């Protein structure tokens, strides 16, 4: 892994890419490598292209990658927190420092197109798009079929990353999937600039094209680290893209079946997912939970953070983990929504993921799911032994169950769901009585419980067209019903984009 970070130095300028802002509109900004520079270097040193791609992966956890010095600006996992809080499944139960309070949990950023946090995800994902476009152009362009396997794998990863970025842009900046609604500019070349918004159908078609191409290009790719996108990860991203459209369930089912059947990933066991003892003072129990090791067999995609990563307080762990030097340890407590927690049976091992003493202000913090293994309260200031998870095989089982249920294949849906729940509960026989809407509701509930805090609740909320009702441990809007397509849950085209992109000249253009 250390070699990956050394390679990144070859293309460190990529880490200062910008999105659709004033700087982005310059054709050859001095801050980053141009297509010509990457292509020329790649002709004599293949490591430059690999290093450039590594720079993109590093941007996923780089603090400030959304263009600010905010302590909630640290790449993909930062926006996973945004989504989990907007969905209501992650409650800000105590707020001493104010991170997330007004802009996210009180919905000010989604309602204010001038807000910096409304702009952060836009800037971040378009930086990734721009970076991916540089790599794609350097290996021959969008229609290229490289001669060498190495370049095929590089092109496949870049296309998958571009699609992943557009997927999250579409999720965060469109209330609900409407193929005819114009939602985002699309950029497919490094020189593209100042584009008008195009219909969601165009954005989704490009995602599908990129991912289908990536799946083909990545066939046979044996990645050196899990931070890299391989074929199963590209298939997983495509499954999410198709599921978000609401009428592509057979394709979702086929894709997830293939990942489940033909990859070595296994569902995390009861011992993997939760600490066995929930008591505050039990610091010596060596087993159970943690979600801190990228080598976990159930993780399909994630990043191995080391001392070379330079990750500390400004990180996902710095916001979520009580056992790191973190806001979660000193007064900005992120907890499971109390209403969701109440739906977990006592015998469910996942109940052990949360601090269960209702008399404590730490109630329902994820002490048994996300934590530094040393378990020193408010512990290390540098993240070394803690990794980041982006995708798990459990997601494929849950999407497979959801697809089967939407195809009225209830027996198959129950089988996929039971594959997970058999490792969480002693008795799953209650599933046999579920069918139709009741089965779909159970799959949605189990998706929220299984993937809590992993950034997938927001996607499931929109995909299932559900309604949020916040539990009693939120600081605002407790008990209010908020539908999935509420304006408060979706960001606006940012002010900076309107100012600097003449093709988009009004907020609602």
Automatic annotation (TrEMBL):
Ranges where the SusD-like N-terminal domain occurs: 112-238
GO cellular component entries: cell outer membrane
Main subcellular localisation: membrane
Every RagB/SusD domain range: 385-467
Subcellular location as annotated: Cell outer membrane
Assigned keywords, A-Z: Cell outer membrane, Membrane, Signal
PROSITE patterns named in the record: PROKAR_LIPOPROTEIN
Pfam families: SusD-like_3, SusD_RagB
InterPro entries on file: SusD-like_N, SusD_RagB_dom, TPR-like_helical_dom_sf
Origin: domain of life: Bacteria
Family recorded in the similarity comment: Belongs to the SusD family.
Name of the protein: Starch-binding associating with outer membrane
Species of origin: Salegentibacter holothuriorum
